[in-house]
User: Fold this.
Amino acid sequence: MIQFARRHVVKAKDRRFHIRLEVEDDGGYTASIPELPGCVSCGDDLDEALAMIKDAMSAWLTSAAKHNDPIPPAFCGMVDRLKVKV
Assistant:
């Protein structure tokens, strides 16, 4: 079962990004930023996952600026809680 834990929003240079957190079956969390393709990280607990995804976001934005890549528009929809059995 995958369970989306909660939604967080971080701000970078007057822009807000949503963080999607997933509780993993074997423990820990996977974190991603839907607006930034490929921006994914994980942590053993919620605090570590949040710290790691903020670091990944910083690296993503630094790389985009260095290569003059556009930052995708904000993601409009967000699921707050969802449980799915597979």
User: Anything to note?
Assistant: The first strand starts at residue 2 and ends at 12. The first helix runs from residue 46 to 66. The two ends are 6 Å apart (CA to CA).
